[in-house]
UniProtKB/TrEMBL annotation:
<dbReference type="InterPro" id="IPR001638">
    <property type="entry name" value="Solute-binding_3/MltF_N"/>
</dbReference>
<dbReference type="InterPro" id="IPR051455">
    <property type="entry name" value="Bact_solute-bind_prot3"/>
</dbReference>
<keyword id="KW-0732">Signal</keyword>
<dbReference type="Pfam" id="PF00497">
    <property type="entry name" value="SBP_bac_3"/>
</dbReference>
<protein>
    <submittedName>
        <fullName>Extracellular solute-binding protein, family 3</fullName>
    </submittedName>
</protein>
<dbReference type="GO" id="GO:0006865">
    <property type="term" value="P:amino acid transport"/>
</dbReference>
<feature type="domain" description="Solute-binding protein family 3/N-terminal">
    <location>
        <begin position="67"/>
        <end position="296"/>
    </location>
</feature>
<comment type="similarity">
    <text>Belongs to the bacterial solute-binding protein 3 family.</text>
</comment>
<keyword id="KW-0813">Transport</keyword>
Amino acid sequence: MSLSRPLGQDPAPWPVPPASRPPFWFQGRSPRPGLAFAFGLVAALTLAAPALAANGDTLTSIRDRGSVTCGTNPIPGFGFPDSDGNWRGFFIDFCRALAAATLGDPTAFEVVPVESNSRWEALNSHTTDVNVDGSTWTLSRDTALGFDFPGVLIYDGQRFLAKPSVPEGSVKAAAGLRVCIIMGTTAEVNLRDFLKKNDLEMTVIATESDEGAWTSFLKGRCELFVNDGIGLALRNALHMTPPRVNHLMTEAISKEPLGPVVRGDDHQWLEINRWVLNVLIAAEEAGISSTTLVDPSPTADLSSEDRVFVGGPEDNAAALGLEPGWARRVIAAVGNYGEVFDRNLGKGSEIGLDRGVNALWSEGGLMISPPLQ
C-alpha cells in the first residue's frame, strides 16, 4: 500500500493557492501567523500524534505479520527498486538490519513509498512500523507531533543544485532566479530563513512531492533545486546525461541530522531501532565487519563489547524482546556502518561520496555509539 501523492504535478509559484495545498500543519508554515499557528498546533497534536498502544505492540505485530514495514522516499542510493524490483539503498539496509534483528531474516521487510505529506500519516495509521525516509530530527517532530527519533543514521545539510547556466560559487550571486522546493519539508523553512537573512529575492516554485520538484527542475521551470545535499549529489550523478552536468553551489544552508522515525507509543520498538543503529556504528569502531564476523572459540578472550557480537547474554536480547544473537545477525546481514555507507553512497558505489562528517568520531567525524555494555 502506498500513501505517496501523485508524482510529477505541475508546480505553482510560492505561495501555492490554499485550495491546492495539503493541510498546513504538514507544511512547516501556516497561512496566517498567530491564530493559524494555534490552530495548526492543535491540529497537529490531534491528527498527527500516535494513538496510544501498549509497549511492545509493534514487535508483536511484526512477528504476527512476518515482516517489518519500512516507509521510505524513493531516491536512488538511499532507497530504490532495482531492475528486478528489489529495493536497495542506504536506508533499505537499515530495514534489512531491523528484519535480521527481529525476525532472523534480512529479507523479511516490506517497503511503503512515502512522501513528505504522507509520512506521518503512514506511521500514525500503523501502515509503517518505521520511516527511514530522510526525515530530519527536529524539536517539533520529536515533541509536538509525538514521534521518536532513535538516533542519527546520516548527517547532511541542505544545498542548492544549480543548472549549468548558473555560475558556480555562492548562491548569493544568484538572486532573482527561480528555486524549486518540496512543500512540508524543512527545506521550505530553511530556504525562507536563508533568503531573509541574506536579503535575497527568488521566485519559489513549490510542489507536493520530491519527484514533482525534481521534474520541475529538469524541465527548466527553475534554475535551482533545494534539498538535502547528498540526495542532490546522487541524482546529479546517477540520473543526468551526461552525469554531473549540474553543480552544487557553495553554501549548506542547514544542518540535517537524518534518522529513522517511530511512533512515540512503544518504548521497546524505539530501543530496538536505537540499538540496531548503534550496533552498526559500534561494529565499525571495533573493526568487526561482515567478512571478519566468525564464530569465536569457546576460549576466545573477548572484550565485553565484542561479546555482544557473539550472541551471549551481553547482547541483552531478553531486555529488548529479541532472540539471542540479534547483533550478530545484523552485522552478518548488512555489515557495519562503514560497509553500509561505502556500498550505497561511498567509494564502492557509483556516486563515490567521501564520508565527511559521517566518518567515525575517531577519524574526525560525528558517528559514535554509546558503549555496548
